[in-house]
Amino acid sequence: MFTLYVWGPGWDLPSIDPGCLTVIVYFQLLVSVEWGIIECNNPNISPTGELPVLKDGVEWIAGANNIIRHVKRKGFDADENLTTRQNADSVAYVSFVEDGIYDSLLYLWYADTKNFTQAISPLYGKLLAFPINYYIPNQIREIAKTRLEKYGVISVGDQGFLVDKELKMYKAIRKSYKILLDKIWDNEFFFGNNLSTLDMVVYGHLATHLYSDLPNPSLAIILRTEFPRLVMFCDRMKGRLSEREIVKFPFNDLPSVFTGILKSPRTWFNNTFWQIRNVEKEAEKSQAQKDFERKRIISITGAILFMVTYVIWNKIISIEFISEKDKEYYDNDDVDDDDVNDNYDDSDNDGDDSDDDDGENE
Q: Which residues form the GST C-terminal domain (predicted)?
């Protein structure tokens, strides 16, 4: 049984993330064994800091491409009917989509301040648990800034507004759409009548361009007015997928500090550290699994430290420090409670003598 850990839904899509959506679509159309998703919405469970993550028995696989390669080895290969040349073309186009097409989405979601503040950030706020809902949207936006620098998109002002200074971005977006249009033209799929991985990757990305509900839906407008064939492809795929059920698993055993430790500390620690395992029945863990668990523990530890820092920084819990001088005074055997009380009484009596005395008493 396969379990997918993914970003949650939005805009009538099973996931708001193109990579997660691609893998979900692949499983819907290709995988015939039992599988389901867990809407964990926390990339910190992944050793690479990204979703989706696949759990297959004792194996953990992170990243959309790695997951697709893994299930292909399990016999669910969407490209088995492609020729050698078509397979090479598929790899090239998938790389192009995950680069240029994904950058188009980053620009729309994070460079457009209105879209980010009114739609994207609130959407993440609904999906994420406290307190990570305060920093993960901005963390993703920082990653977007770095990726968009090659297009001349720069950060300006104290608020870090992203500006397409050289007006290159929309030219690049239209060029990317044109490349996909030239490939599919009037075919049902990108390789004629053969459904392939490329179709699922393209839909996973274009669906977030086309169906997202944003204040400034510029990408959807460009697609509908200038590239209607790509819209028809997405609509066909969406109709096909609407007939396939997606099983959602509960997240009781989610390996996350916020939905695990804070929800049930005893259960989480028992399951993670103290549970007695039947060694004879349990399969030997691979090195990849051991590396994953080690990185996951590091990730969870970092999350705990962030939570503690957040609480202290926002003065939810205050910590008072006593100087060594005060400590020595109160620990001195020669000082008793009567001496301390006498000092306070003298201060009260002398409070009206002068302004200087007031300052000393204070």
A: 83-256
Q: Please give the Cα distance from 225 to 220 (Å, whole number).
A: 9
Q: How far apart are the first and last CA of the chain?
A: 70
pLDDT digits 0-9 by tens, 211-268: 999 999 999 999 999 999 999 999 999 999 988 889 998 875 454 433 333 333 333 3
- Edge-to-edge, what's the strand order for the sheet holding 53-56? 35-39, 2-6, 53-56, 59-62
Question: What pLDDT digit, counting tens, does each position of 253-288 carry?
Answer: 454 433 333 333 333 333 333 333 333 344 455 555
The runs of H, that is alpha helices, within 74-120 are 84-96, 102-106, 113-115
Tokens 């590091």 sit at which residue? Answer: 298
| pTM of the predicted model as reported, rounded to 2 decimal places | 0.70
Output the six-digit token pair for 272.
């993670």
Q: What is the CATH number of domain 2-243?
A: 1.20.1050
Among candidate residues 1, 59, 6, the one with its CA nearest the CA of residue 293: 59
CA 281/CA 60 separation, integer angstroms: 19
